Fold this protein.
Amino acid sequence: MLYNYSMNSKKAFTPLEAKRPADCRKNKCRSIKARAESNALNAPRKLLTGFTLIEFLIYIGIFAVSAGLITGILITILKINQKESASVEVTSQLNFVIQTINRLVKESSAIIVNNNGNVHNDTPGPNQPYLVLRMKDSSGGVTDRDPITIWNDGANGITIEEGMNFNTRINRLTSNRVIVDQFNFTKNSQYPGHDTVSLNVQLSYNTQNPGSQFTKSIQSAISRVSAATFDSDLIPGGPPYNWNIGQTGSPWKKIIVDNGGSASPSYTFDDNLGTGLFSPGTNVLGFVTNSNERMTINANGNIGIGIDNPTAKLHISGGDAAITTQGNGLVLKATDGANCYRLRVDNTGALSTTLITCP
């Protein structure tokens, strides 16, 4: 330790104080740290600012409102998009069903509606679940469409079946993206116009999301455009087989059939197909039994029995003409007058004539 002696007092100094200037030792100066702080205080000040609590809360509120609005807009756009997708799907499938049925009805030869799809059962009542269309191509080929049956097959949707037996083909007109709420037919006959069928169909989008639910229905009437054409057997419904062709007061004008032949006459009878009428030639009518021609009426009006080319008004061949009722005979007209006589024969074989009124 160093000692500093003066005239008035004496004081001891530490080594660090011994190194300071005299004025520092007398506390008339400030340390380097103090001078730095003084310089900092005297230097130009920079303005330091921040968010107050109110401003912070306002900013958070604005952000929350903006986020809510944007979220609402996005949700609305999503709902509109879902609704539009459902509308497009339902409308597309509904149009396809209507166009398909419209085309097939116009191509059909006959319209049948009923509750079981039977091709021989036509039910005139309203709202029948099955539509049966008879088509021209019914010869039994693998591509034949007759008959065409259309109905709602529940979970499988609207179904179409073409052909019969081994040629049956089944397709779906709607997919599982829609639900068939209603699907029925009503047949309307408006003579002399062609039959029409009224279609009532309603489809809904298949979803559990309330925002995507969409339903659309259509009621339409479709008419055939051509007369009925058949290329297969026309069979009445039954038994009992008690259906008529035409009726009293509403007869058919003509029945035009093939010429036929003695083995298969054009007009024949149930269980007696070898009996009937046919036309063996132009303006010639033939009568058949047991598939053999028995009598012919030719274009001149000659009647031949046992002969197919009679040369007299009554030409008999291959047998006798018998009159077995007593008192009757053969009526002849005089060659030189207007009188008529009945020619008879008695029990002895003697011929006699009796004057009668000419028939």
Observations:
- The two ends are 189 Å apart (CA to CA).
- Residues 86-223 form one domain.
